[in-house]
Design goal:
homodimer, 400 residues, alpha/beta, Aspartate Aminotransferase, domain 1, Aspartate Aminotransferase, domain 2, 2 domains, seven-stranded mixed sheet, 13 helices, 13 strands, globular
């Protein structure tokens, strides 16, 4: 009877795990690895915030060590509400519309557990961040993909969405700025989605992990147009950049938040207290204003170097210049077709032979077999250029 | 269609929430509250550990800010394995038998999600920590209670267990040292449970939150007798005492850990990195050896004061002198019967009138209506004595 619930195995290991295994092997052999695979910031959060944390740790009080309310300390919920007003002009009640979570992942898990019932339709864009599918499968939802394409800058095809929504549609999950494409949603597309959400009464789950990691353009705020239908999933992992501290939040209408809070309490009891104090300090003291522009300047230059290197060394590659997030989604099908190799085998062999880590496009959906995802935030400009050169060499070697 | 999954509401708000609301109201009115309700340590973790954390935060590296493996950093898994060898002489492979979680709560959630399938029988002792029931309900398990009694020092009745196990028994959840009773499991009872677990092939989930919070006696290590049937749920919340830092771990056989790790990854991606470094430092440098005896001395004196005050001011109360954990489970039925008031109403009115917070026995099971749980770790000896005096006054006032 010590059987394991088979539903568990719908939660497959992260598809990047095979790449991680090769990476670990190479790093044990002390081989140099070009990390173009990870969505992890490369710049630690601001020293001012870290100094604040170091100081409060010296105080003889349980305030910084004890449990907090399961929806988060009042100070962080207030700081989040002020921040969203500042960033997007959206108005939230910190006591009713916000629940603080142990990272965006836990926020997404709790939210999906609350809204999905067996057989519900959940709509994803194709391509889509690979983290959603296993969760939807786990909760018994049925995934429908809607089309995007490189030539339309990865904006979702609204006609396709109109054809696919129906009375079983429970939610549409969308990321903007996007992972893996770096696309920022156009306001007219965003508004059209809001209209459909209201008409068919489904949830828009907007993953706003990269909402401030913007190089060109502006984040689209769904909440302004359909507040009763929008659930914002947020994280402090990318800005200020301490993903390991596991802090995020969900905002939505009062009833939804009440339910997410219940699950949150059972999942983690409360979000990490020290992360809550750190993030409160970051927001309340507007540390972002000085810190983030410097970070974005570095990331933007790295993105530009990636574009330059792709144009120069892989001239047949096609891409949409990332407007935000940490990624570019690059079409290498011209090369891969000629070499008769799929993106999964290509990226694995590339990593083994050249030490360059990328994520294969096949992991993001159905229609992007010839693509790969580049992260441009981890490596320096020199190393990004070198990595692209290595990819070009590898393509050449495979051809011979 | 924006319906909320009804299963969510099996996760009722923590039953202490009503008490929390009264507490919050009183503290806004700046009324003094005697906190005998909470299982939270009152002594911050050792300064040496906190200084270490303050120092590493100054380093310009993502090492202390980035994601970790979802099963936890190798250093913390090694430290845990060494610690369990030291404490209990039990041997675990840090790469196969341990997964680090965002607290004991998340470890329990992940583990129950993995083992419970609809209709499985899950056995709890009566009384039992109130956190398990909602989780078992949520995952579709059926709860069966086994008997314990004050006169047997809250040792589970093995004859009762033998009658209740059957082919649908999936797991027995047990806490030792116990919440709410402070009972430490006797070896002969523990061994009898192991024999039954092997015979009927069910899991023993041993909640070891308080394994080192021991005043008299020794923790019973199930793993030694039935390693293939034991799942240890552990936390760093009580020792070293930073519950808000959300760190715990689960140990079990390789296959179970593989499944828990999958869920852990989807729930929280990884446990908080800074908590992992802090706890590694605590374990690797054996800070417990100096730190914990001082803490236990304080807690033990407070327990003794509680016993003294109960004997003196509430002479009809009956209790089992807590051997470990942070609690005593006290039979006030002699008073409550005479006053014709149930434990829930009694504790609520006591809090409102006298500012003394306790947890009613009714929340811990079926057979302990006249009991209340005292936590003796939060308040000073003077205040514990004063609180018991207030309870006695309150009982007298109710009688008049």
């Amino acid at each position: 009877m010590r059987r394991i619930n088979r539903n568990t195995f719908k939660l497959r290991e992260s598809p990047t795990r095979r790449i991680d295994i090769i990476k670990e092997k190479l790093s044990k052999e002390r081989k140099d690895i070009y990390l173009l695979s990870t969505g992890q910031p490369s710049i630690p959060p601001p020293m001012e915030m870290r100094k604040y944390v170091a100081e409060i740790l010296m105080e003889e009080t349980m305030k910084y060590y004890g449990y907090t309310q399961s929806r988060g300390l009042p100070i962080i919920r207030e700081a989040i509400a002020e921040d969203l007003m500042l960033l997007g002009g959206i108005e939230l009640n910190p006591d009713e519309n916000i629940v603080v979570t142990a990272g965006g992942q836990e926020g997404m898990f709790a939210t999906l557990s609350v809204i999905i019932e067996g057989g519900d339709q959940v709509i994803l864009t194709d391509p889509s961040y690979f983290g959603y599918k296993p969760l939807i499968d786990y909760f018994g939802g049925k995934i429908t993909y809607i089309e995007t394409s490189l030539k339309n800058g990865f904006q979702p095809n609204i006609e396709d969405l109109k054809e696919k929504v129906n009375s079983k549609t429970k939610a549409l999950i969308i990321v903007s700025p996007d992972n893996p494409t770096g696309r920022i949603l156009e306001p007219k597309i965003g508004k059209a989605i809001c209209d459909l959400a209201v008409e068919y009464d489904f949830w828009i789950l907007i993953d706003e992990a990269y909402k401030t990691i913007v190089y060109e353009g502006k984040h689209f705020w769904f909440w302004k147009y359909a507040p009763e239908h929008v659930i914002g999933i947020n994280t402090f992992s990318k800005d200020p950049g301490f993903p390991g501290w596991r802090l995020g939040y969900v905002y939505a209408n009062k009833d939804l938040i009440k339910a997410v809070k219940l699950v949150n309490e059972e999942l983690v009891y409360c979000p990490p207290v020290i992360s809550q104090w750190a993030a409160s300090y970051y927001l309340k003291n507007r540390l972002r204003e000085k810190f983030l522009p410097k970070v974005l300047e570095i990331y933007r230059s790295r993105r530009d170097t990636l574009c330059y290197a792709l144009d120069r060394y892989l001239p047949e590659s096609r891409y949409f210049r990332s407007q935000g997030s940490m990624f570019m989604f690059v079409d290498l099908s011209s090369y891969l077709c000629r070499l008769n190799i799929d993106s999964i085998r290509f990226t694995e062999r590339l990593l083994e032979k050249k030490g360059v880590a990328l994520i294969p496009g096949a992991l993001f959906g159905n229609s992007f077999e010839g693509f790969v995802r580049f992260s441009f935030v981890t490596e320096s400009e020199e190393r990004i250029e070198a990595a692209v050169k290595y990819i070009a060499n590898f393509v050449e070697e495979l051809a011979n």
